[in-house]
Automatic annotation (TrEMBL):
Pfam family, one: GGDEF
PANTHER family in alphabetical order: DIGUANYLATE CYCLASE DGCM-RELATED (PTHR45138:SF9), REGULATORY COMPONENTS OF SENSORY TRANSDUCTION SYSTEM (PTHR45138)
Keywords: Coiled coil
GGDEF domain sequence ranges: 211-346
Highest taxon listed in the record's lineage: Bacteria
Protein name: diguanylate cyclase
Organism: Brevundimonas guildfordensis
Listed InterPro entries: Diguanylate_Cyclase (IPR050469), GGDEF_dom (IPR000160), Nucleotide_cyclase (IPR029787), Rev_trsase/Diguanyl_cyclase (IPR043128)
Coiled coil (UniProt feature): 153-180
EC code(s) of this entry: 2.7.7.65
């Protein structure tokens, strides 16, 4: 997808595509920020690609397209500009350190060879009293060679210590970059990419080892209406609020993630359907019990509620099938009045 779109962006049709992107953003009431523009270029360049489909889905759902939605889409679907830059920079630091260490090793090796030669010469001269010459000169040249090798060995040690510090710093930094790439910046929960990876891995484990695996999808009720009334900034705070309650409840081994705009997901490894339902109901009650205030004006925002669908993986079921069942249960919660937790049916219904 990326290659095709990038080629288009450098072709004569690029201006047409750019105009269309701006028009399409305006039609969807999306601000023409640089990131949104980049997303729309990719979207229009490849509407059937993963990013294109996700944007179409978001627009069709009527969910507001906020900065955090854009960041989440970029983190998941755009070429990893920042990550590849970081990797390139890390490579440059490593090369510099390796070159410096190699230089110091060369110097130390050179002075070791010289030292060896000096010792051999001195031994020859001492073995042959006729050639020994002035003993004082001999001792002075040995002392000089010894000082030189000690200097180079000390320089090598210093160089290795400093490289060790640099490489440790680099490793910590890369670990942070890796964590950032798997985290939703707004809520600090796992992002969808990280979540999908966990879900696939845990599905495999559950299939092979036979442990139970629950999955819940959580959607904030009437979020679009909330955003339209109070604005995106307050909407983002509601997302953070729901995220913070979920994060507290979904401690390891549970995994909570922001799954889409106002959609969250939680994995429950090794728990019964009853325990999962009870945990989700306590989250639902906790979220709905708080009267939120608009921070800028202190307006009463009322409470937000969530609708939830969950399922426990059946033997042989794939991650996609489990997601589909949980999703269908979520819509059953929505259809039957919202602010509910619904357990998934045994199989996805044909009506879905
Ligand atoms: P935040 O604004 O960064 O607040 C982080 C945490 O600081 C909150 O976690 C809470 O423990 C504490 N805190 C901040 N402001 C207040 C306050 O006025 N009173 C009290 N008692 N504690 C406060 P918490 O509760 O889990 O909320 C997480 C995030 O959810 C908040 O991040 C904010 O973005 C959003 N949020 C929660 N409640 C409200 C609310 O009433 N109105 C708005 N606009 N956002 C809220």
């Amino acid at each position: 997808m990326t290659i095709q779109v990038e080629t288009t962006v450098r072709s004569p049709e690029a201006y047409t595509l750019a105009h269309r992107a701006v028009d399409a953003m305006q039609a969807a009431s999306v601000w023409p920020t640089p990131l949104n523009f980049e997303l729309w270029l990719h979207y229009l360049g490849d509407p059937e690609g993963n990013l294109g489909q996700e944007i179409s889905r978001l627009l069709a759902s009527g969910a507001p397209f906020t900065d955090s939605t854009a960041e989440m889409l970029a983190a998941e679907f755009l070429p990893r500009g920042r990550l590849s830059e970081e990797i390139r920079d890390a490579g440059a630091v490593l090369n510099r350190e390796l070159a410096a260490v190699a230089g110091a090793i060369d110097k130390a090796r050179e002075s070791q060879v010289t030292y060896g030669n000096t010792l051999a010469e001195a031994a020859d001269r001492m073995a042959n009293p006729g050639e020994a010459g002035n003993l004082g000169d001999l001792v002075a040249s040995l002392a000089h060679a010894t000082r030189r090798i000690r200097r180079h060995t000390a320089a090598l040690e210093r160089r290795l210590e400093s490289s060790n510090r640099e490489v440790t710093k680099l490793r910590d930094h890369m670990e942070q970059v890796r964590r950032d790439a798997m985290t939703d910046a707004l809520t600090n929960l796992a992002n969808r990419k990280a979540f999908d990876e966990h879900l696939l891995r845990l599905c495999d484990e559950s299939e092979n080892a036979g442990g139970s695996l629950g999955l819940a999808i959580i959607d904030i009720d009437h979020f679009k209406r909330f955003n339209d009334t109070w604005g995106h900034q307050t909407g983002d705070q509601v997302l953070r609020y729901v995220g913070s309650v979920l994060g507290r409840v979904a401690r390891a081994p549970r995994i909570a993630a922001r799954y889409g705009g106002e959609e969250f997901a939680v994995i429950f490894p090794g728990e019964t359907a009853g325990a999962i339902e009870a945990a989700l109901n306590s989250v639902r009650v906790e979220i709905g019990s708080r009267a939120l205030r608009r921070r800028s004006t202190n307006d009463d925002l009322g409470a937000v509620t969530i609708s939830v669908g969950f399922g426990v993986r059946r033997a042989g079921e794939s991650a996609g099938q489990l997601l589909a069942r949980a999703d269908e249960a979520l819509y059953a919660s929505k259809r039957s009045g919202r602010n509910k937790v619904t357990a998934a049916a045994e199989a996805v219904s044909n009506a879905a």
